[in-house]
Amino acid sequence: MKKITILIVEDEQLVADDLRETLEYLGYIVPTMVATGEEAIVIVESLQPDLVLMDIRLAGEMDGVEASEQIQSRFNIPVVYLTANADRATLERVKATQPFGYILKPFDERILSTTIEIAVSRHQAEFEVQKALSTAQTDKHVAQSQSQQKSQYLYMAAHEFRNPLTTIRLGAEILKHYGDRLPEDKKQSQLSRIQSATEDLMYLLEDILTLGQAETGKIHYEPVSMDVVSFCREQVEALQMTVGEEYSIKFLVNSEQRNAYLDEKLLWHLLNNLLSNAIKYSPQGGEVLFTLYWEDNNVCFKVQDRGIGIPVEAQAEVFEPFQRAGNVGQIPGTGLGLAIVKQCVDMHEGSISFESVVDRGTTFVVKLPVKE
């Protein structure tokens, strides 16, 4: 058990020496003794003792009561008065400083030891209570913040659902009331709009479910040994087939390495969202460059586009759910893609960074540690 360190503040040298011998005999540590309140404050700041034994009448301009007020308020260190002063006026001043004990001279060893032990124990108990209260207050603020954030996400999700649902409802009503009078091409147009809106809803639901599962720990990080080069090439080929000739995805491998332990499902979500975003925000006919390389025991994925870029004012919130920059215009999207990417990166204990210039494009770099 750690021994209690005590600072003695006493201007009578004989009394101070006697007190020091008694305390050391009782098993306490007395690192030094001072004679003034000013010295006491300086020493407390540097030594941080467990307790201060304070005389009231001291040499210097500051008496023990004033010194005690500063020590307890500035350093939160308990003070016990050891003094011959017991008049009513002095007691009232002492009470105002809320000391942890008051011992009259000449002191008794047992009373001295008991007072010190109770003072230190009480101070520790009060510290633990304050710590618990502070933790509870912090937890309360965090819970309130999370609740507000969830409410905001719910509102944003509802807003995102509104447009495709409105399209589906209007299209269905038109077909219901006027379907027998519409030419075939008009019917097909309404059906195509309904089908497209339905697909948008499915993508939105999938993104919300994926993000929610990641945040609540329902998606587990399960790394397996995999051929990263083949995995990336297959994903690029699948996306290229989807976008056809409207966009070009160029895949480069700048390493002779191929294998790493990664989570295939998380990596699929990560790359699919990065590449899909790069395509989505590129001009028609644009090229997306996807580079795979190894660096400092990390497998790295770099996705570059020459698209619309991310405005500086939107970059701080780029990984927050439902956040979309002001320059996206009519380009469809949920604002969930990069939030999912960030979750996938975090579950791999990796890092993600980006550089972006409006109208010149964006580059994302993901680094995932190569684990065995």
Describe the SSE topology.
Blueprint: E1 6-9, H1 13-25, E2 33-34, H2 37-47, E3 51-54, H3 64-75, E4 79-83, H4 88-96, E5 101-104, H5 109-178, H6 184-215, E6 224-227, H7 228-243, E7 248-253, E8 259-262, H8 264-280, E9 287-295, E10 298-304, H9 337-347, E11 351-357, E12 361-369
Parallel strand pairs: 1-2, 1-3, 3-4, 4-5, 7-9
Antiparallel strand pairs: 6-8, 9-10, 10-12, 11-12
Helix pairs in contact: 2-3, 5-6, 6-9, 7-8, 8-9
State the main characteristics.
5-stranded parallel β-sheet, Heat Shock Protein 90, Helix Hairpins, 3 domains, Rossmann fold, 5-stranded mixed β-sheet, alpha/beta, 372 residues
Low-confidence stretches: none
Work out the number of β strands.
12
What is the CATH architecture annotation of the largest domain? 2-Layer Sandwich
Helical stretch count?
A: 9
Q: In what order do the strands lie side by side in the largest sheet?
A: 2-1-3-4-5
Number of domains: 3
Helix content: 40-55%
